[in-house]
């Protein structure tokens, strides 16, 4: 029983990490119709900015309020990077899908190379609060605090995004734009500002995933964003493109499936099962768990 509780909570921690990355991807594609393969760069920037701030920024550090300051700095850096990417590279390429893919893939590769050139290709120990290296006993299971931190953070981010989409003016514009962007434009609303805002939200969530994911793994590396981006795309497709709630459901399914199969099967089998789940969803429900069916 202890093993089941532990696997469930660690699986939910992994799911929370996937959701933080996938939520921004889902919003960006749903509104702007952009497959952003450079999304992992925002995660890497957030992780390395947090790592740098913890050791160099006045008032920041690996413990207490200093850790909050370091994470806030990382999130701000990731948000700024996302806004710059949208304004400089993506905005001139809306409705040009092939060029978008080429630019974002190229930016992703260049970003990893830049991080490697600046801080090296090897993983570096991540300065994290002492309490995140400890465990909490839950119904007899010793659960790592780093995973619990991810669960709390993802829950708060999900609630904040849903509240923003439901009760703010720009949230309503984004929701309407996801449903029918042409109609929103015809009403005289400048959706370009909404595009930039969506990229900023996605960048902030990815940067937070980079910072807290590094706490979870204990290290930071240039390849970290790319490896998590693969599973984030799987989560977005399973959940339904443009659906934040669908991404949350899919992230839970993917995280739990990986943990349980890897534990009771052989190492790596969980990843294969995730890809198999993706194939089944695409065959039986191509629009995803919470997506809407496309009618001819």
TrEMBL record:
<dbReference type="InterPro" id="IPR052157">
    <property type="entry name" value="BCAA_transport_permease"/>
</dbReference>
<feature type="transmembrane region" description="Helical">
    <location>
        <begin position="65"/>
        <end position="89"/>
    </location>
</feature>
<dbReference type="Pfam" id="PF02653">
    <property type="entry name" value="BPD_transp_2"/>
</dbReference>
<feature type="transmembrane region" description="Helical">
    <location>
        <begin position="263"/>
        <end position="284"/>
    </location>
</feature>
<feature type="transmembrane region" description="Helical">
    <location>
        <begin position="101"/>
        <end position="119"/>
    </location>
</feature>
<protein>
    <submittedName>
        <fullName>Branched-chain amino acid ABC transporter permease</fullName>
    </submittedName>
</protein>
<keyword id="KW-0812">Transmembrane</keyword>
<keyword id="KW-0472">Membrane</keyword>
<keyword id="KW-1003">Cell membrane</keyword>
<feature type="transmembrane region" description="Helical">
    <location>
        <begin position="34"/>
        <end position="53"/>
    </location>
</feature>
<keyword id="KW-0029">Amino-acid transport</keyword>
<keyword id="KW-1133">Transmembrane helix</keyword>
<comment type="similarity">
    <text>Belongs to the binding-protein-dependent transport system permease family. LivHM subfamily.</text>
</comment>
<feature type="transmembrane region" description="Helical">
    <location>
        <begin position="146"/>
        <end position="165"/>
    </location>
</feature>
<feature type="transmembrane region" description="Helical">
    <location>
        <begin position="194"/>
        <end position="217"/>
    </location>
</feature>
<feature type="transmembrane region" description="Helical">
    <location>
        <begin position="6"/>
        <end position="27"/>
    </location>
</feature>
<feature type="transmembrane region" description="Helical">
    <location>
        <begin position="229"/>
        <end position="256"/>
    </location>
</feature>
<dbReference type="InterPro" id="IPR001851">
    <property type="entry name" value="ABC_transp_permease"/>
</dbReference>
<keyword id="KW-0813">Transport</keyword>
């Amino acid at each position: 029983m202890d093993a089941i509780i532990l696997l469930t909570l660690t699986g939910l921690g992994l799911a929370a990490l996937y959701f933080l990355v996938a939520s921004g991807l889902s919003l960006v594609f749903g509104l702007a119709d952009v497959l952003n393969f450079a999304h992992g760069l925002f995660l890497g920037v957030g992780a390395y900015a947090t790592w740098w701030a913890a050791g160099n920024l006045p008032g920041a550090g690996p413990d207490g309020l200093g850790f909050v300051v370091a994470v806030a700095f990382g999130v701000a850096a990731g948000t700024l990077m996302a806004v710059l990417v949208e304004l400089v590279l993506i905005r001139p390429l809306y409705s040009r899908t092939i060029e978008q893919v080429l630019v974002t893939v190229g930016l992703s590769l260049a970003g990893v190379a830049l991080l490697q050139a600046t801080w090296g290709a090897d993983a570096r120990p991540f300065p994290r609060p002492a309490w995140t290296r400890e465990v909490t006993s839950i119904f007899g299971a010793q659960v790592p605090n780093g995973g619990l931190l991810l669960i709390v953070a993802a829950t708060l981010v999900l609630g904040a995004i849903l509240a923003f989409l439901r009760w703010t003016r720009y949230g309503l514009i984004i929701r309407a734009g996801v449903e029918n962007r042409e109609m929103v434009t015809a009403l005289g609303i400048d959706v370009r500002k909404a595009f930039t805002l969506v990229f900023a939200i996605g960048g902030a969530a990815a940067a937070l995933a980079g910072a807290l994911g590094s706490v979870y793994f204990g290290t930071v590396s240039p390849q970290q964003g790319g490896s998590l981006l693969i599973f984030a795309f799987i989560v977005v497709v399973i959940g339904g493109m443009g659906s934040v709630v669908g991404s949350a459901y899919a992230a839970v399914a993917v995280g739990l499936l990986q943990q349980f199969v890897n534990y009771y099967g052989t190492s790596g089998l969980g990843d294969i099962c995730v890809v198999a789940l993706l194939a089944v969803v695409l065959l039986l429900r191509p629009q995803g768990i919470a997506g809407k069916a496309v009618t001819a």
